[in-house]
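Retro notes, item 3 of 5
We never archived the inputs for the NAP complex last cycle. Fixing that now. Sequence and ligand:
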Amino acid sequence: MSIFADSIMKEKTVLITGGATGLGKEMAIRFGKLGARIGIVSRNKENLEKTVTQLSAMGIKIAYDVCDVRDPSQIAASVSNLEKVLGPFNVLVNNAAGNFISRTEQLSPKAFDTVIGIVLQGSSYFSLEMGKRWINSGMNGTILNIVATYAWTGSAYVVPSAVSKAGVLALTQSLAVEWGPRGIRSVAIAPGPIPTEGAWNNLIPDTSFEEIMKNRNPMMRLGKPDDLADLATFLISDAASYINGAVVTIDGGEWLKGAGQFNMLSGMPESLWDLMKTRRNK
Ligand code: HXC
Ligand code: NAP
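Structure as it came back at the time:
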């Protein structure tokens, strides 16, 4: 059951990068069902067409353009093409990403360039293009960036992604202050693991890792695309108009569990808890 009123997004025109698959598609469905007009961009035309056909059949007003977010001229052309069909955007969701696990010493400079290009430069270029349009036309806007909890902890084996997401976090907080007075909010979501084909193909060596991830999560489960769509809906809605520069974590408490000094005691046997009671200072 949705807690959001049916037409909450009817004044929103939302551009979602990487919107044909995974979490981007889930957000497109959710925002679209709530009345938003949706533009999606990515590289794979077949996926874009499939998603537009599927969502149009649900009654969602949606259009696509092929765009590699690493190329500023493609970004400018895509925004113009989509605005001709949908009207001016007032929300940008920087969701496109590239990622893979690898030992860092085995990466080439091009491997770094590729991920930094998609995630950090792509989000920066898109924000720049949209921000200029909004400032020049006097429109208000919202930028929602999708980062990851390792944006502030870093993470082994996904170093190009971690440095990029950390950069996008800084982008969010910097633009929140600089563009807030121009009527542009910047916010971010830091999800923990949520099964999607793209993330799982690139990052999860086999299904045994799912169990490990569930067991180390205080909520004992992985995230669901719906969890993220709920939060994203709220953050881009007018109900969040005073939220600017915030990064909201949605991971069931996973990263905090890894961080707290004594959190590993949740696996301690009862006998040791009893023993510790006897060691109280008199
Ligand atoms: C080491 C790798 C590699 C790997 C690619 N490269 N995969 N190096 N290990 N597994 C290197 C290549 O050898 C090459 O360098 C360079 O990276 C570019 O590779 P290409 O295949 O030419 O790049 P491209 O076709 O542009 O594809 C980009 C991609 C691909 C990132 C590599 O995986 C992709 O398109 N991904 C999009 C979807 C995605 O990643 N989704 C996951 C999002 S989940 P050389 O020098 O050899 O030429 C996420 C957060 C998850 O981001 C957090 C979970 C909690
Ligand atoms: P996904 O389905 O693989 O989404 C990534 C999207 O980015 C794809 O649609 C891809 O489309 C697009 N993309 C990649 N390179 C691009 C480029 N150069 N230009 C334009 N588009 C490009 O994975 P997902 O799980 O939904 O991830 C969505 C977002 O959530 C990402 O920012 C990811 O980092 C973040 N996230 C996911 C998880 C998780 O567990 N799923 C956790 C934390 C954060 P094309 O290949 O067609 O271009």
